[in-house]
């Protein structure tokens, strides 16, 4: 399957980078990604004991009891905004769409 490419208003081609994974062990539950995502991709959920942050002694640990999840990854447009605001580099992106 080839990469899906888009085009800007000005006619410049670009390749969406879909959010395909979120590392729960890095996530501090800050909600920054949720605030910038324009789709219904992300959802804050209760954290399981298996997903406790690796560095939970950080001062910026804002909501250790919660963790962000890719609740509806098929709604992702690949804009990349979530990664630009994430302070913990939790997201993995791919130009390839997830298999249906
Ligand atoms: S890449 Fe864009 S649409 Fe996809 S989860 Fe991140 S902010 Fe939402
Ligand atoms: S911005 Fe990063 S650390 Fe904050 S909730 Fe989203 S994935 Fe977790």
From TrEMBL:
Cofactor entry: [4Fe-4S] cluster
One Pfam family this sequence matches: Fer4_7
Domain 4Fe-4S ferredoxin-type span(s) in chain numbering: 18-47, 66-96
Gene3D superfamilies assigned to the protein according to its UniProt record, in alphabetical order: 3.30.70.20
UniProtKB keywords: 4Fe-4S, Electron transport, Iron, Iron-sulfur, Metal-binding, Nitrogen fixation, Repeat, Transport
Keyword Iron-sulfur among record annotations: yes
Reported function: Ferredoxins are iron-sulfur proteins that transfer electrons in a wide variety of metabolic reactions.
Protein name: Ferredoxin III
């Amino acid at each position: 399957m080839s990469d899906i490419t888009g085009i800007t208003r000005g006619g410049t081609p670009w390749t969406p980078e879909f959010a395909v994974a979120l590392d729960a062990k890095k996530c501090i539950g800050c909600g920054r990604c949720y605030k910038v995502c324009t789709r219904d991709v992300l959802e804050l959920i209760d954290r399981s004991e298996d997903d406790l942050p690796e560095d939970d002694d950080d001062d910026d640990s804002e909501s250790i009891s919660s963790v962000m999840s890719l609740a509806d990854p098929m709604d992702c447009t690949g804009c990349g905004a979530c990664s630009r605001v994430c302070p913990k580099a939790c997201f993995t992106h791919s130009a390839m769409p997830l298999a249906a």
